[in-house]
Amino acid sequence: MANLDAEICLRFKEARKEKGLSQSLLAGQVGCKQPALSAFENGDSTKLGDSIVKKLAEKLGVSLDPVAKVKENPPEQIVVPGIAVRGFCPDANCPSNIPYMVGDRLYFKTLRGKASPNGGTRCACCGEVLETRCPVCGAPLNDGACCGACGSKYVTGAMPSGIDVAEWAAARRAEIIQLSSF
Fold this sequence. Notes:
- By secondary structure, the chain is mainly alpha-helical.
- Helix content is 31%, strand content 7%.
C-alpha cells in the first residue's frame, strides 16, 4: 500500500474526524503509533504497513479504490456537557501549533484551550479532534511540547525530505503571526 495516492490518505483523515476519533485513540485501536498515523493522513502512505491500512479502511469505512468516496457513516459525537475539554491539536500544520527549533530538533508549542464551541472537543482553528492526553503513553498533558512522563513530542510534523526545517519553522511562525492579525 506504499503507493497510495495522497487523496486516499486524506479520506482516512476525513473519516476519522467525522467519527470524532483522535489520532492516538485510533492508532491504539488498529495497532500503530500516532505519529505514523499522522504522517499517513498527511499523504505519506509509506508510514503504515498493509495490514494496518486494511484495518483502518475497515474501521473507518474507507475504500482504497481511487475513484470511490468515503462510506457514509454518521459521525460519533463526543459531547461532555458542562466540562471544557483542554487539549491540543495533533495536526502539525494547524495554526494552533507554533513550530520552533531547539538545536536541530523541531518542536511545536501547542496553544491549549483553543477548542471550538461544539462541545469543546475539536480544534477551533482546523476542526481536528483535540488530544487530551499524551498520544504515546496516555499521561495527562503538561504545558510543554513534550510529555513529562515519557518525553514524547505531543505534535509531530511529517516533513518532506530535502527541506531546511529551521527555515520552514521560521516561515511557518511568520505565517501564523500574519493569520492572527486578521
